[in-house]
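User: Run a structure prediction on this.
Assistant: Running it now.
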Amino acid sequence: MIKNYSVFAWRALLKNKLYSLLNIAGLAIGIASFILISQYVLDEIGFDKWIPDAENIYRVDGDIKLGGDEMNLAVSCDPMGATLKKDYPQVDQFVRLYNSNGSKLIRKGPEFINETAVMHADSTLLDIFPFQILAGDKLHPLDGKDKVIMSEKAAQKYFGSIPYENIIGKTIETDDDPKFYTVTAIMKNMPANTHFYADLFFSMANVNYDWGNFLSNNFVTFIKLQKGTDPHVFNKNFKTVIDKYLLPQAQVVVQIKSMEEFEQSGNKINYFLTPLTSIHLHSNRTAELGANGNIQYIYIFSIVAFFILLIACINFMNLATARSASRAKEVGVRKVLGIDKFNLILQFLSESVLMAFLSTILGIAMAAGLLHYFNDLAAKEYQIIDLFSKGWILAFILLPILVGILSGLYPAFYLSSFRPIAVLKGKVQSSWNKDRFRSSLVVFQFITSILLIIGSIVVFKQLNFIQNTNVGFQKDQVLILDGTSALKSNREAFKNEISSLTGVSGSTYTGYIPVNNSARNDNTFFKNAVLDINESLNMQVWKIDENYIPTLGMEMVKGRNFEKEMKTDSLGLILNEAAVKLLGFDDNPLEHKLYGGTDIDKGKVEIYNIIGVVKDFNYSSLRKKVGPLCFSFGNSRWSMGFKVKAVNTKNLIGQIETKWKLLANGAPFSYRFLDDAFDEMYRSERRIGKIALAFSILAILIACLGLFGLASYIAEQRTKELGVRKVLGAGYGNLIALLSKDFVKLVLIAFAFAVPMGWYAMHKWLQDFAYRIELSWWIFALAGITAISIAVITVSFQAIKSAFTNPVKSLRTE
């Protein structure tokens, strides 16, 4: 029986080659899209789940609000992990990760390499993250000072292809203090689906830090709880930790009676646990260890994957029913010969399942062929072998069965329901008004397509707004040189030589760049000499020189810039407008003073004069409102910024590199343009926009195949009507319009549903940006016009073909 079904199904495919090709191609595109998007989604939701006991590992995060400015931190204070382990038996172990500068210079031969994938870690690193150790100490390789764990990649880079066992005990040289670290372990390269990445882990004992400070938050702290511990219940312990440890240290420095009084004034200090497996998709806090994903995009892409596959299945239904007239007599003959409805349904389902299997094979081939381009689009490193894991192999077996049954079920019941007498007399035509089910399927397809078009337009319009909006500083043609601390005593000479080059119009020492993941230094200032915590404001403090503001094109709205000759400027501050507003100094900020400093816990309180106010500028992503910030006078010498002219930039960079090599003692030459660093903040949105555009095109392509199928169906049903109209004098244009108008109505109905849905979805997405575009009416109009144009072009082919058919053939009695 199965053999007979298969033979009949194969013959049916070969008999109608165009129909089969359209169906297989549509399903294959849908399946390929489904595979690629699903691979992306599965990879994203799988982050950190490879770690044993990942469900019991948590990061200690903090929310701190002082004077109206709130910090949402992925870091906590230095003693937090040790304190939790000491005081609470539910904590099995903890580890801290620390990376203050973001990179280390490591010598290779006569030159240094700037390594950015570096961290300091506690000796308990492998107790929390059991990376596979290939050689060396497998328990506590970071126990003590001057030790380093290297990945395979780093080991091969610095020591070549010698056996890993021979590398253990060797040293690597850095550009800081200490200079030499001993290699104690070689680990397997970290999996890509980990929310942070490092090639070198250095001993935490080498970090030069004021240990035991509960008031500063600089360490990423992970703890492992005993199985069965409820993290929500455990979070209540942080109040005790704050009262017992943090409050006494704070009271030495400032006036604060209790945390209750502190919170009643509108401030807060709160710590809580974030599950390790939630960090990648649910966390976007200050001082993250890497660029995280976004759960909203996972929801969106999951829905898109499902709907693209569903659209492909709908195409099958439409194309199958479009052929109803041509297969009606076949059904009638089979029924007259005694084949019952159940066997007819099985026959038609066997055709759809066979077609789904062929489509799946082609879809897998398409997905494999497009994987390289998808990797570029999604910033991933998937390999073809990833598509043949056990899970995917099972999916490839079940997918064509499910898709085949889903796609073929309605056509099978529809075709098998024909009455033999009626079909043998040719009475199978049905009016357009009764084809509501098929029409609703097309409406659904175009709702999905229009939503994707609206989404693509809004994403790209928001990105264009970000690139062209006035962010309060000049981001174009500003060249940033990183790692300039390697110049040491040659810094001034290098800066002066570069400043004298033709094409350079400004220069500054600038470790603080107005982009995400730049240097950050928060400090608390007080409005009065009596350090009352309720009269304080926590804000970022950037050390800049007198050239920083003019080089970056910032605008002074009150007061003056720093002056090198003014010795009193060492205790001067330039506030941004947001800080002035939060401090309540709107009347005349230059008449006020602030109190504080970095050593107030040691009894040293500085008095700062406000010498100027700079216009607010976006020093981080446009997702956030501009917060309070101040400039203090000094030098942040690990980077330099140069204002350059656009003429022959490549030649100018070459000259700068030449002078660098003469003065930098083998340090690597690393540069970037400020506008590129600014655009990098929106890499995720840009990537999502490109992916959405790509799959919008695919969804529209698949929908057009479905539309073509419905157009074929309608043309078949109205063949004689068109012949009569032509005999009565109807023109080609009238006939084409007659066939097209009903499809335009369907798209207009889809447009009416898609507009409110698209507006709501995009409105919610834009809420992530503090500065955003308005959802103009033309965005939705453009999406509608695009969809209608595509529909008309698709239908026109079949309409023109029917309009030019000889009416004699249309009216001939069969």
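The mean pLDDT is 83.
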